[in-house]
Specification:
Length: 151
């Protein structure tokens, strides 16, 4: 054994007075650390509460927007259905008009008819009653001329 090992042990002892004094001097550091952690914890709690409120607000807004979009979608769907009905009604009416137009006379046919009417000039046509009246008048005139030769 070396002669001064015991003396060295005292010099390099783990439990010196200075170290024994450290726990007393470490108390303010621990208190500061606890206070610092407390402040940080309160700040984190505050941020958490703020974020939680913001998340709730965003959820509420999203639900409100979803309801609004759902209502608008229903209204638009109803309007589209009404428009489809109106388009179908108009299409039916157009089909009827087209079928009627196919059955009507064409321009060429009307032109030919117009030429015949101009040629015949129906405005100068007489009725049976008018012809009978004219014939009676002529017969009466001839009968009077036979009875009255002077004229």
């Amino acid at each position: 054994m070396p002669p001064d090992i015991g003396a060295d042990k005292k010099a390099f002892s783990l439990f010196k007075k200075k170290e024994a004094e450290k726990p007393e001097s470490a108390m303010p550091n621990i208190q500061q650390s606890i206070n610092s952690l407390d402040v940080r914890l309160k700040m984190i709690e505050s941020r958490h509460n703020d974020l939680s409120r913001k998340a709730q607000l965003m959820d509420r807004n999203m639900l409100d927007e979803r309801k609004r979009f759902t209502n608008e979608f229903r209204v638009l769907s109803s309007d589209i259905l009404d428009l489809k009905r109106q388009i179908n009604s108009i299409q039916g009416k157009l089909d009827m008009i087209i079928s009627e137009l196919k059955g009507s006379a064409r321009k060429e046919e009307l032109d030919a008819l117009s030429k015949y009417i101009d040629l015949w000039d129906p405005v100068n046509f007489v009725t049976r009653n008018e012809v009978e009246k004219i014939v009676r008048e002529i017969v009466e005139d001839r009968a009077q001329k036979k009875n009255n030769p002077k004229d």
